[in-house]
User: Which sequence fits this backbone?
DNA sequence: ACATGAATAAAACACTTGTTTGAAACAGTC
DNA sequence: GACTGTTTCAAACAAGTGTTTTATTCATGT
């Protein structure tokens, strides 16, 4: 016999899914309350208003996922730069797409994607608490992998290239499913995808290091437009 | 003296912006009509209903952008695979982010991102008409760049990695702006960004080719979780 | 000048939305 | 068992939504 979650928790779980699937405005408190088996007024009682519920959802989603899938190896585990890169990439995939992460209630992943697209005021705190530290971790890894040969701007460019690949799988899953069935980012593909992005990115970084001397923008100057 | 656009066209332009910024549900026909200097009833008169307007917007956005920034060199222009890759990447960046593309009325880019996240029925046609052919073009380029050494699944993986990098810049622009000011994907950075993604991806493809013999999943097997 | 159809305008309609209200049910304590 | 604070519930409210209606203006061809 499983103890049922209290109303407040049920609301947060369901709301994360519905907010993500339909967006803040389109999601209605009526539907959220109904699917959570709660009364409509429960939202206002527990969270003041709809936005209060949304803030609670956002905080909950990030706290749980980063706790469950940390981006760095456990303390005391020595790891060379390449291995740290793989760990980082894999954590990202699992966080976004595994059943234990945001892939289970699949709307939750979309909620975050929506925040990237149109950050709400509530997201400012999240950026500082979770996103920026992640950027710094990855930047350090990229710097190490490149042997310290890259300037800050190029390090960040590479970091964005890496994150972009990972997030795109989560973000564009419905389209990927349509035009590349085999790569649908579901549980059993996560290791393959992590491995692919890892290798692709290693080569990418190396390539940036190797072409450092070339004058930017010379290549293909005559390409239109 | 510039001839003012007819109401129908003004509605499509403005609606693309507002739909993108706020989402289909949150965007109101009142606001769209007001900003387009049109009457509220004009939407229903010209497009039957709100969804009709949305469909018109979607079709318009894709038609214009792909006409303005084609992914392939002009007919009769011979180009080696690498050059075709650069052209493809650059076209993507300009389509998404330049003032002449979807970056001007910046909501339009977001509208497409929203469709990737949550495709509406109206998007099915777009996928077949525009997206799938793009996938095939890029797949052919990747295959050529790799010297024909990659199997279909890996080709598509690489293609997704490339597209992911490009789209991520458009999609996550607000966050990138916050944590990596120098790389804000605005007009003057597009060539730098195209060049970066081009080099990164060339190295990435090469790396996938070079590690073809390795058994998938062996690397980092003991990595948690 | 007139007739005809397309385009615009203001007002009204039916419906859904988030929120509030006041009463009822529940839990724990003395 | 009565008291108290917390939680749940059904009903009502005010604001905002997409759409329809009806009348008016505009453009064009004869």
Assistant:
């Amino acid at each position: 016999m499983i103890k049922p979650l209290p109303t407040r928790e049920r609301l947060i779980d369901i709301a994360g899914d519905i907010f993500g699937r339909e967006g803040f405005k389109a999601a209605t408190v009526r539907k959220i309350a109904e699917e959570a088996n709660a009364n409509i007024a429960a939202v206002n009682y527990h969270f003041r208003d709809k936005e209060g519920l949304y803030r609670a959802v956002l905080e909950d989603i990030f706290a749980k996922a980063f706790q469950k899938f940390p981006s760095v190896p456990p303390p005391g585990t020595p790891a060379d730069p390449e291995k740290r890169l793989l760990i980082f990439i894999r954590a990202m995939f699992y966080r976004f797409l595994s059943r234990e992460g945001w892939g289970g209630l699949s709307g939750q992943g979309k909620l975050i994607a929506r925040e990237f697209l149109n950050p709400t005021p509530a997201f400012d705190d999240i950026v500082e608490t979770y996103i920026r530290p992640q950027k710094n971790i990855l930047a350090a890894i990229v710097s190490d992998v490149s042997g310290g040969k890259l300037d800050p701007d190029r390090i960040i460019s590479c970091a964005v290239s890496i994150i972009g690949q990972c997030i795109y799988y989560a973000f564009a899953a419905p389209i990927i499913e349509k035009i590349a069935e085999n790569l649908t980012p579901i549980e059993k593909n996560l290791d393959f995808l992590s491995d692919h992005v890892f290798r692709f990115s290693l080569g990418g970084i190396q390539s940036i290091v190797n072409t450092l001397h070339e004058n930017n923008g010379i290549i293909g100057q005559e390409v239109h437009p």
Q: What stands out?
A: The two ends of chain B are 66 Å apart (CA to CA). Chain B touches chain A through 76 residues (CB under 8 Å). The first helix of chain B runs from residue 7 to 22.
